[in-house]
Amino acid sequence: MMRLPANKIVTCSSMSFLRAVFMVACICMFIEPHYVISTMLRFNTKGEFKILQVADMHYANGKSTACLDVLPNQVEGCSDLNTTAFIERMIKAEKPDLIVFTGDNIMGIDVDDSAKSLDLAFAPAVASSIPWAAVLGNHDQEGTLSREEVMKHTVSMKNTLSLLNPPHADKIDGFGNYNLEVAGVHGSPLQNRSVLNLYLLDSGDYSTVPSVLGYGWIKTSQQSWFLHISRRLKKAYMSHPEAQKESAPGLVFFHIPLPEFASFDSSNFTGVKQEGISSPTVNSGFFTTMVEAGDVKAVFVGHDHKNDFCGELMDIHLCYGGGFGYHAYGKAGWARRARVVKVSLEKTVKGEWGPVMSIKTWKRLDDAHLSTIDDQILWSKDTAGKLLQTA
After folding, report:
1. Could you tell me the pTM of the whole model?
2. Could you give the CA distance from residue 248 to residue 41 in angstroms, rounded to a whole number?
3. Residue 8 falls within a domain, yes or no?
4. Contact predicate 181/43, CB 8 Å
């Protein structure tokens, strides 16, 4: 993101009725022939599934692209290759089951060739053979490819689960709206059920409404799609065989923070807030939509590089990834960082792997020790939002 000031929220009461009508009308766009789970993602035999979030790489041209906001003794030789090395360290240390890039993956205005820069930016993920997914930020399209072309190129890459847009939805705003399903442990009663649902959305770049300044927002058509998928997954999870009592947990990933991220201060979040919340000036109501859906436990964004906090609002954690890339603005002496999310299953009374028991998160710093900070429980069947006790 660029350093725009945090904005006040515009109340759009005149949009409320039209939004409600359009939400209903959009449901017809998402009729699917039948429900089939994707088994490309699955909990491991330890009953765990780990996600690495990479926020704001701002990759440009590789070795020739200098770092921003680093200490004087770090300037010489510092480039995009430091970002590459950080991803490689994180993959080796955490061994994630999925890597999610939450936008501003390349810094479009600084690239010579957007396709080449995308290839360089995602190269460590591709080389690792770990499944990965990406959404767009507000800078990815500012180079030699349009927003649609950036996403199309991303979708064409090896090992990615990214989609241009959902199947059976030909009228939806943005590019890179899709969901991923994580099946239970192989051989368990839930091996053919999605026990964890991931939603990825395009939060836009900049407002296209002349009277509204600032960043883009998640549109009504996207929210309609999200609600439809959430309800479909809930129905499938709570149906026989192996019917569950409630919907599987959901995690949501996009780039630009919602206005609700401004609801917190140092007394009610874990992490740091070192700059304003650069959300859209229009509140399109997506937070309310997630509350209505009932399955979302946490949201993960980027955009504001010097913020890395998680705060809980109405039983949903709103989390920043923290600035990752070395060609992105940051704070000299404040280490680049990445967020890790680990989801664990519970054992049933029969000793078999069952539904999700807990969702935890922590961050890793790109320092000499790849330090771990801010271990936190985001959700569990017994508690939520409590800081883990360290020995």
Report:
1. 0.89
2. 15
3. no
4. no
In a domain, 389, yes or no: no
Nearest to 58 by CA among 350, 312, 391, 305: 305
In angstroms, the CA 44 to CA 1 distance is 36
CATH number at residue 97: 3.60.21.10
Q: How many residues does the chain have?
A: 391
How far apart (Å, rounded) are the C-alpha atoms in residues 95 and 99? Answer: 10
Answer whether residue 7 is part of any domain: no
Q: What is the distance between the alpha carbons of residues 222 and 172, in angstroms, rounded to a whole number?
A: 6
160-169, 176-185, 295-304: which range is least confident on average? 160-169
- Domain assignment present for residue 386? The answer is no
pLDDT above 90 covers a percentage of the chain that reads 84
Range of the domain at 124: 13-380
Q: Residues of 185-210 as b/e, b for ≥16 C-beta within 10 angstroms?
A: beebbbbebbbbbbbbbbbbbebeee
Average per-residue pLDDT for the chain: 90
CA distances from 273 to 38, 79, 253, 270, 352 (A): 37, 26, 20, 9, 42
Question: What does the radius of gyration of the chain's CA atoms come to, in whole angstroms?
Answer: 20
Structural domains in the chain (count): 1
Q: What is the 3-state secondary structure (H, E, C) of 117-151?
A: HHHHHHHHHHHHCCCEEEECCCCCCCCCCCHHHHH
Residue 31 predicted with pLDDT over 60: no
Show Cβ contacts of residue 25 under 8 Å, excluding neighbours closer than 6 positions: none
- Contacts with 59 (C-beta within 8 Å, 6 or more apart), sequence order: 65, 80, 83, 105, 106, 107, 111, 117, 118, 120, 121, 325, 327
